[in-house]
């Protein structure tokens, strides 16, 4: 959880992306903070991406690449990342920026909440 005092001031793109992330239900799978731990995450195979793990992104981590993933979805390996083709390109890019901001955020002890890797 965030430290006391609420979230730090965010750039406009981040606020908009955050709102889009909330209103489009991304967190149901990816988790509120993009850690791949949303309420239905455990029902999904493959699991939803933990956005902190840039190396795990199958389609690349550039804003345009993420926006394209959001547009087209990611189902080729049986995943349930659906297409958000109804959003505008601008909205998808704002979401992509937000995803990247989640990836870039300092760990703030969150690493300790991760289950140990078994592989
Ligand atoms: C129904 C669950 C679900 C929802 C809702 C969902 N995703 Fe996903 N998402 C997934 C799964 C599952 C994967 C991983 C699929 C795979 O590994 O093949 C994924 C992968 C991703 C990836 C990584 C793509 C890559 O290159 O590996 C991004 C970025 C992403 N989702 C963004 C979003 C955003 C933004 C939203 C909201 C607009 C969203 N997702 C909503 C299930 C979901």
Oligomeric status: single chain
The count of β-strands is 0
* Rg computed from alpha carbons, rounded to a whole number of angstroms: 14 Å
Terminal residue distance? 27 Å
Helix content: 25-40%
The chain-level structural class is mainly alpha
Please tally the helical runs, counting DSSP H or I stretches of 4 or more residues: 4
What is the average of the pLDDT values? 86
> What ligands does this structure carry?
heme C
The amount of beta strand, in percent, is under 5%
Q: Which regions are unreliable across 5 or more consecutive residues at pLDDT < 50?
A: none
Domains, number? 1
Looking at the overall shape, the CATH architecture is: Orthogonal Bundle
Explain what you see.
- The protein is mainly alpha-helical and 119 residues long.
- It has a single domain, classed as Cytochrome Bc1 Complex, Chain D, domain 2, CATH 1.10.760.10.
- Helices cover 36% and strands 0% of the residues.
- The chain has helices spanning 12-23, 26-30, 63-72, 89-104.
- Helix 3 packs across helix 4 (89-104).
- The radius of gyration is 14 Å and the shape is globular.
- The mean pLDDT is 86.
- Heme C is lined by residues 24-26, 28-30, 44, 46, 48-49, 57-59, 66, 69-70, 74, 77, 79-81, 84, 95, 99.
